[in-house]
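Q: My labmate handed me this sequence with no annotations at all. I'd like to see what the chain might look like in three dimensions before we decide whether it's worth expressing. Could you predict it?
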Amino acid sequence: MIYHVAALMVVAIWGSTFVYTKLLLMHGLSAAMIFTLRFILAYVMLLAYSLTRKSFRLMADSVKDELLMLGLGISGGSLYFLTENSAMNYTTTTNTSLIVCLCPLFATVLISAFYKSERLHGAQIVGTLMSAVGVVIVVLNGRFLLKLSPLGDALAFAACLCWAVYSLLMIRASERYDTIFTTRKVFAYGLISIIPYYMIWPEWPDWEVVMQPEVLANLLFLGCVASMLCFVVWNWVLKHIGAVTTTNYAYFNPVMTMLLAWALLSERITFYFIAGTALIFVGIYLINRQTEE
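A: Here is what I predict for the chain of 293 residues:
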């Protein structure tokens, strides 16, 4: 039960990050800057903790495994965040949210193609489809008109595929290495792999802005909690209950986001939100019930 509760807590935190990210964007920080600063904070803190452990190691056992860590850093770090945030510049928020929130469906299909043990069967397939439909209902919230934008929608789909690849690669990584080491490598290679972006589009944060109490507090939350703590917990849960089961909890992301908007921004809770949330709950229940059996 603790793994399932932990997954829900991580999703709840990730569902709240749009508020903090939006505030930083309003202060003039770009999406790349926000990603870089939060990953630097996460890496430094996790490295400091790792140095206190007797089992500290700097590199993986082989070049092949080190390339695996690089793949994790790109798919779950730099490329994922850049494609997701860049999509917002070319398509609507609704389109981006709808596509990105369907990451579990992409991940389930990809992982099932490579790992027979992770494939869903019977009620589990019905459950994941119900959850996907629930996400669509929650995100659209009664607005059934979508404006297609090829470039923006393609970037959002690319973000989905990145997270699916990350979940797939994490299965192999978690079999060979402990969670702390793997997560630290994700942050390290996420930062290294974003360097080419800055070589093409060089930009530097305004440190006077960064040091403002409100901005610094938001960066600390994104770096220390939403990145370091949540990535460690998420990868730990992936290792214990499987990639597909864990990834399906991401269906709760838009639910948590809407609840936060209701609590902080006085957004109205609609019938569509309630119906969609109910479908997500029933879908996750079906997935987990058959998994336990």
